[in-house]
Amino acid sequence: MTWHRLGLIAGGGGLPKAIAKACSQDERLGCVIALQGFADPADFPGATVRTIAQFGHAISDLREAGCDAVCLAGVVKRPDFSALKPDWAGVKLLPRVLSAATRGDDALLRTIVGAFEEAGFTVVGAQELTGGLLAVEGPVGRLALSEADREDALKALEIAAATGSLDIGQGAVVCGGLVLAVEAQEGTDEMLARVATLPPNIRGQAGARRGVLAKRPKPTQELRVDLPVIGVSTVIGAAQAGLAGIAVIEGGALIINPDDVARAADEAGLFVVVLPRDEVETP
Amino acid sequence: MTWHRLGLIAGGGGLPKAIAKACSQDERLGCVIALQGFADPADFPGATVRTIAQFGHAISDLREAGCDAVCLAGVVKRPDFSALKPDWAGVKLLPRVLSAATRGDDALLRTIVGAFEEAGFTVVGAQELTGGLLAVEGPVGRLALSEADREDALKALEIAAATGSLDIGQGAVVCGGLVLAVEAQEGTDEMLARVATLPPNIRGQAGARRGVLAKRPKPTQELRVDLPVIGVSTVIGAAQAGLAGIAVIEGGALIINPDDVARAADEAGLFVVVLPRDEVETP
């Protein structure tokens, strides 16, 4: 759908900053709403700070700035719903949010996306605004993957598809065919830290790297929010876990600061690879 | 199949000890082979100590003791296969073991079970020897589960079935409908420790316990080895993770030292419940 002016609702991490940067010359960016406790307002000069429970205020902010579209980007952890202090529109939304929250992250995000759409806004994916961050086929750094790596990558992508279809998470680590770890609420960084503590004989290590982290969208997921993200911290975590590399699917992940990611991967001796869709069997 | 004399191949943890105790008055127990690095030989007076790579020696031990059956019980971690010093029979077995090891734990165990069967032994499940440990329907301690707990228990069992069918693991934790964690190579204790570090708002805590650990066999698993095990340490881990309880399926788990498990659950204010098969929807 065509839209004319965008509001960015910013959570934590590098993605909202990358979007604000990509839109900095763009007169279509009408306002930024920095979510309290997640986004650092210092990163977004002129932003309005709102809590995640101030849905009505956010809608007013967007309308006052003349926005007809909104982009939800960045990390937002599940709140303590009982401690929220919602505004009036937030109160009305809360029962639906609470019900969806028990089904999984994708269900929760769909409800929030739906609420913005019902309020008349077009919801725009980060990838529409920062085309340069969307994963395109090929290696991101200098290293490519070996045949053994490719098998691990395809199996990890298959596992991530299966767990994603249950709305569990987007990531998995496979080494030598063995599923070392599956991501749920702990997140990717924590999963990688766990792999680093597994017995050395079932994983790789610096100098003899083995195993692949794969991330992919959940098969049914709302792709305008919560696309898997790969950043420098992901590369560092994968390196510490002894992995040979990281695999995502074309169009199925955002690479934040791709030059930095490539440099970090090259320095650590890891590959970061974007596989073509048709190479990835979806179970 | 009928058998007359049994050899117990003991790994770590409480299960082999419970079996040896249950068979202590039993003239059918011909010998115990304590696996070096896993079983403590002091727990098994008169046992022969062998490494997991001494397959040929183990077969000879069993035959010399007049055994026609074998029970594989207890925790054995995946070894560093390249560091093994197999005997001649072990060398012949190793390629099949290595190939299976890349597919998952169940595949690996099937190969080992198959090797004992090919050598002419009947492989007997722990549950045949210690009927009293096999989970039977009902609560193990004093506490029963609420309706909300039951929903979490059924969802956790469903998730464990799905991940089990991919040979990932046997356990999952669900709280308020949300999948908090899925078990892979880290094991149950480590998964519970991770849940204890998740944000307090998505899990329970002492005094306001929420969420359920479920364990079940993988749908296609070889049930004579590696049945899920619940022991006192599982209860303690679940308590520290703020969970309301633990759920397994009738006939689908072994409860080690059930009186101690019940006491630990009562003291911590957790339920441990064995659900009837027909109540658990298998996806």
UniProtKB/TrEMBL annotation, chains A, B:
Boundaries of every LpxI N-terminal domain copy: 5-130
InterPro entries, sorted: LpxI (IPR053174), LpxI_C (IPR010415), LpxI_C_sf (IPR043167), LpxI_N (IPR041255)
Pfam families in alphabetical order: LpxI_C, LpxI_N
LpxI C-terminal domain residues: 137-273
Bilayer-crossing regions: none
PANTHER family, alphabetized: BLL4848 PROTEIN (PTHR39962), LPXI FAMILY PROTEIN (PTHR39962:SF1)
Protein name: LpxI family protein
Lineage of producing organism: Bacteria, Pseudomonadati, Pseudomonadota, Alphaproteobacteria, Maricaulales
